[in-house]
Amino acid sequence: SRYVPLLNAFSARGIEVSIVLIVGRQQIADAKHGHYSFDYLGKVYADTCAQITRDWLIPSGIRNVELGNEYNDDASWPDPYSNKMQSAQQYMKMLKPAYTAVKSEYNKDGGYSWRSIWFIIRVTLS
What is the pTM of this model? Predict the structure, then answer.
């Protein structure tokens, strides 16, 4: 909520803003260590993204939303990082519900259109 005045200022000036809603490294690490499942993490992430979209992004005129994790490295991806197919399947368990939830919030009243929802993977170069 501390960013809402900034979002409103950009919106009032007609400046287009993209927002990235990420799953944090600690949450991914907790799921990797069995504290909860990736399905559960996806549900919590989706619920949080929907609330942020409903309460802050739509009222602030934000039409571009990106979903993803923090970095494209072993600490930010589900296990096993070396098995790209399995890791990608677990990653989508986290992101697909959030995509559906954010899209649903933008489409609720039919009077507001979202421009884009992207899955983002940030790459760290070493």
Answer: 0.75
